[in-house]
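Sample A.
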Amino acid sequence: MKTTALRPLLYTGFSIAVLIPVACTPAVRLTTTDPVKIDVNMRADIYTHGDKDQKDSNPANSTSLSPKERRFNRRGEVQALKNGRIIGESNVGQLVIREKPADAEYAAYVQRVVQEENTDRQSEFKEKSNELKKPLDVYIKEFAANTRSASFPGEWVQEEDGTWHRR
C-alpha cells in the first residue's frame, strides 16, 4: 500500500526534475539588426592561345589554330545556341539550324558559327578517320551517335532514321 501512495509523488518529482531545466533555458535570438553582408573577390584570367599578332579578336576564328583548337574555343557559343534550342545535332555529325532567329544580325551570327563549326568538324573527321584507319562514313556515324548520347535534355538531336526530337 505504501508503494501506491508514493507513485504519484515519484511522477510529480520526476516531472519537476525534467521540466525545470527545460523551462530555464535561455532564448536564442536568431535575428540581426544589420543586414547580412557578403564580400566577394573574384579574379578572372582570360588566355588566348595562338598567334599574338592576329587581327581577329575571336580566337575561334583564327586560321593559325587547328580545327580541334578552334572547335574548343567555340564550344561555349555552340552550347549557348543548343541551350537556346536554335541549333541541333544532325545524324551526319553536323550542326543544323532548327529555328532561325528573327533578328537578321543574330541570324547571320548563328549561320556563321554553324558554318565554321561544320567546316572544322569535316576537317577533323578526315584527320581522325585516317588516324584510326576507319572509313569516313563509319567515323561520322560513330561521332553522330556519341554526340546524340552526350546531348543535354532539351537539345535538338536527329536520330539515324532522320526524325528530329528534343532529348
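Sample B, a different protein:
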Amino acid sequence: MKRVLIVHHSSKISGAEKSLIDYIEIACRLKFHNFRFHFVCPRGDLYTKLCYYDVVLDTLPLKRLKRTKNILKLARDVIHIGFINAKMYYFLLKNKIDLVHANTSTSACYSILAVKLLNIPFIWHVRDIRESYL
C-alpha cells in the first residue's frame, strides 16, 4: 500500500481547500485500495471537515508566510520553516510516506527540505497567483 501525505498550511476553508476536500472525497468514495492518505494541517475548520473521511490526520504548527522586508520577521520565518522541516523529516520516516503533495506554495516550503533529504517523490500544487508572476 502506498502512503500519500498531503500538506496544507491553512485551517480555513476557501477555494484551494474546497478543491482539496473534493479530491479527498472522490478518493475515499472510489476506494483507492492501494493508497492510504495522511494529512498534515493546523487544527481548525479544514481539520474538522477531514475528520469525516478515511484519512490519517495529524497537525503541525503551520502558518501563512507573508512577504516582509523586516529582517527579524524574515529570520523568524526561516527558523520556523527549518523547525517544521525537521519535524516533517521524522514524520515521513515514521509513517513510511511514499509521496508528498504540497497543496500550496507555503506548504511546499514546510516540506521540501525533508522530502529532498529522503528522496521522496514530491508534488507541488501551485495555487498562488501573484501579480509579480504575471
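Observation for Sample B: The radius of gyration is 15 Å.
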